[in-house]
Structure formats: structure tokens, C-alpha cells
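It is worth pausing here to work through a concrete case rather than discussing structure prediction in the abstract. The textbook approach is simple: state the sequence, then state the predicted structure, then interpret. We follow exactly that order.
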Amino acid sequence: MSTRGRFWLVFLAGLVASCCPIELELTETAPRDVEPPTDDTGKGSAGDLGDARYPDASRAKATNHSWWLKGLEVTHYRLGYRMDKSAERDLIAKHRDFAKSVRHQKLSDTRFRWSPPERCLGGLQCVYESMDQGSRDAVTPVSALFESRRAVAKLSSTELTSLVLTFVQNIRYDQPNEEPFGVLPPGVVVRQARGDCDSKALLAHMILRDLGIDTVLISSDAHHHTMLGVRLPAAGKSFTWRGGRYAFLEITAERSPLGHIHPKLLSPNDWRVVPMRYEAAGGRAMRGAEQIRLR
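Step two, the predicted structure:
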């Protein structure tokens, strides 16, 4: 490949970093107060999932996440996240060190130049893999709270996915332009309660993967957007990939249900599964970058 050809491939990779929030108008509005009430013992209600800690002995002040989900017996939920400042700095430092290793250079709030490994030309899969690895221990305690809730409430995979989805959707949309590639490590997304489409989508992907729910990260260059597909039956829009049917999961629109995707995001349809590699239970897993087929 010529030097000029390589430059343009790298430059185009930088254009996909910025994503926009998708506004969704629903007829129902969430209650004003969505924080579960506490009982006389102070232990919280059934919808209080408890506090996740990173590291395990963290005594940091909790970042409180409160959200509402229609359709379950319990509709109001809270999850706290206690992360030491030093741990937060370490996650950000790891992300910035990776950026230095691939010669990341910021050109503007929405563009950058870098020198990725050859297999990562034209996409951000290597960036997501680095953040996945760096934030794994920080996200696992969050996943454990959802696993506990599944066991106590006997939630189906669809109900559990909706609970995780609304938790991540409730996190404030914010483009972290101060960070390399315009993305935040997933653990920091929970700690700071903010993130853009790919930062939040990767967080949801990690939690659902921990819970044994098959999801794929999907990306569109035309729409500058990232979201998820989940291999579960759901009303609405879905796509097929490697013989499986996946429902769309929109991460940036609050209360967007399984199977919803804004119509404007389907024309043109250039959605592809992000070819991430990661260590998974039972061995090394790899996702391929094939274009999806709408159903």
C-alpha cells in the first residue's frame, strides 16, 4: 500500500469517532423521582441493586444511577458505583498510553490521525479492545449486581437485557472530546455518569457479555453512530449475522426498547459488526467485520 493510500485510510478511520445522540419521542414520560425508597433499616427497596466497588475495598463516595423501567414487577431502580480516584486515573492513563502507542494525533473535536495495526485500518476495533481489556475488572462488579438481580427476581434474558439497556441509556450523553479518539473507558463512563454512543455501547456490551447474553457492537460510518445488536427475540427491527437474528439496541435514546432503531439510520444501510477480539469464557473469541442484513 502506498504512503498516500495509507494516509487516507487512517484519516477516514478518524472520521468515525464522533457520534451523535438519537432523540426519541415517546408518549410516556418517566416519573420525576426514580430513586427507590429505603425502608426503616436503610437497606433500600427491591429495586436497589446495591453498590459496586472498584477496587473491592473502595470507600469512595458512590456515583448514584437511578432509572425507571416499565413492564417489570419492580419499576424503579438504583445502582451505586464506588471507584477510587486513583483507579479512575489509572483507567484514563491506560487509555492515553494506548493512544500514544498508536501515535494518536487530535486534529479537531471530531477528527484525528493515528497509525493503527493493519487489521484496524478503517475502524476503531483496536481502541475498543484496549478499553475492554483495561476496564474489565472495573466493570465486572457492576455486572455482578445485575446477575444478583436476575437470580432474586427470576428475570428472563429479555427482561435482564432491558434492565441493563435502560441503565446505560440513562447515563448522560456527552462527547468526551478531551480524551483520545473521543471515547471514555467503560469503567470511567459508570464513574463519571457520562459518555457518547461508542463509550456507552461498549459498556453495555461488556455487561451483557458478562451475563452470558450474546451481543455484537455495530457501527455505521455514514451515520457516525455506534449501537448494539442482541441475539434475542424482540418486536421491531432486527438483522441477521452469521446465522443468528439480532435485535437493534439503541444506547443514546432514553427508554428506546429492544428492536428500535430510528428510521433515518437505515438509509443508507452500511452497518457492520465491529470485528473485536477479546478473551471470552472457553477460549479466544473473534467477531468478523461482515455487513449485516436487515430483516
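Step three, interpretation. The chain has one domain: 28-294. The two ends are 37 Å apart (CA to CA).
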